[in-house]
Amino acid sequence: MSVFRPELHITAETGILEAAAGVLRDGTPATDGSSPADVWHMFYQYKPAPGQPSRWGHSMSEGNPFDWVECNDAVAPVGGETAVRAGSVVAARGGVDLYFTSVTEAGTSIQITHAENLDELCDDVNEDYAVSAAFRRRGDVVSDAGDFTRFRSPCVVPGWRSNDDRDQGEEGWLMLAVAGASEDPSIVVLSSADGTAWTTVGALSFDGDPGFDPASECIVAPRIFRLRDEVDGVIYDVLLITLERPGGDETYYVTGTLTGSSFSVVTPAQPVDRGHDFSRPRTTSHTAGSPERSARYDRAYIFGSMRSSGRNADLTTERNWETGGWAGTLTLPRRVTLQHGRLYQTPAPGLPDAVEESRRAKMWTGMCEIPVGSSVYAEILDASGEPAAVITHSGDTLTLDRLDGSPAVSELHDEDEDNITIIVDSSTLEVFAGGGAVTMSSRFWPEGGCSGIRVRSTGDAEIYSEWRRGH
């Protein structure tokens, strides 16, 4: 295996992984009454080779979201389609619905493909990863309607609860989708009683300052979910958006309440990730029998693409393309909670054991006291023992420096805990600090791979306790 291919992160076996499409977490109890298996299904948009049309790949991990097995593809272009692009994954009708973007010379529309039996999704895997026989297309569900055309990039949420009784009921479906020209898109809100017949509610608008100018920004990849704030106990809507900007994609979250097509802002836009490479996150859907489903308003799980460049970027410039014939990867899953209107992200449970069982991944966690003016430094060493990246916590600032002249920097709040978790998985580097208040994701390519993490403190900074995983 190439020293640049991650072991715990999802990559395409060959080809270019362009974006996450959606995640399904299946905890349905076994037929013999035994404890339910925790099976993660990740669907992603990729190209088997440059110049080929985009399609959906599928990987599965049982027991945790770190031990991925590649399965047959889920959706591929047919007929006059020139590509099928990312969308949304929903546990529905006893199986799973994939809402995807169908691209033809005439434009785009949103279609569904459905699989009845989740246990069949990884049956009969073959070498060319042809589309799984478990999936059956159901055709268009959203196409041009009135002033809105070229629907794409759907986010679908079943059981969208009413604003009057947000903690009860399972009725009504919600969709957010992108419409209009690529250079001037609109986010459109749609509703449905069954997930197949959709009615346009209207273009998304904001009541209050969202922290950016919706009229001048190119907003794409909308996602929405609900979380209960651990401080005031209120269930809020959390809107994830990606802004396409000249310097690259920037992804933010806004908290508030969606009523119709109007989003009442409580917390203006805050970065989801402050590293070099994070974009277009996806949320996780749970099957009806999954234990996590009952706690879905207390926590959520998200993935993102580890890239900062826009949708037209050439990922074959990555060093691993030349050496391994693959490009692009996704972040590790993040467990997300809400406190005082702020998102806190931590690695999904099971990561320390997964790192320990890997061949090359490494993890360091430190509980610290870092007064402003003092620092804790963590150097990520390459195979020769030289620093390939440096993470610095200086009390009120977190810096991730790949030693390329463009460090990523984030402020830390006084009330945040002085702790740091660093995960190195070949060419991926993820940092969690301040109890999850700040996350940073970056790609890097240490010569010969990572040989270790060297940590030191300066000034009055103290590392009270630390532990490591990985060989």
What does this structure look like?
The chain is mainly β. The protein folds into two domains: 15-347, Tachylectin-2, Chain A; 351-469, Sandwich (Jelly Rolls). The chain has helices spanning 319-324, 351-357; strands at 15-26, 39-47, 55-62, 69-70, 81-92, 95-104, 107-115, 135-142, 152-157, 173-179, 186-192, 198-203, 205-207, 218-228, 235-245, 248-259, 262-271, 279-286, 300-305, 326-327, 334-339, 342-347, 362-369, 375-381, 387-393, 397-401, 408-411, 419-425, 428-433, 438-443, 452-458, 462-469. The two termini are 17 Å apart. The model has no long low-confidence stretch (mean pLDDT 91).
CATH overall fold name of the largest domain: Tachylectin-2, Chain A
Count, helices:
2
Look at the structure and give the CATH class of the largest domain: Mainly Beta
β-sheet strand percentage: over 45%
Radius of gyration: 22 Å
* DSSP helix fraction: under 10%
- In CATH terms, the superfamily of the largest domain is Glycosyl hydrolase domain, family 43
Kindly report the oligomeric state of this protein: single chain
Q: If you average the pLDDT, what whole number results?
A: 91
CATH architecture assignment name of the largest domain: 5 Propeller
Distance between the termini: 17 Å
The 3D shape can be described as globular
Largest pleated sheet = 9 strands, mixed
Low-confidence stretches: none
Q: How many β-strands, per DSSP?
A: 32
Which structural class do the helices and strands define? mainly beta
How many distinct domains?
A: 2
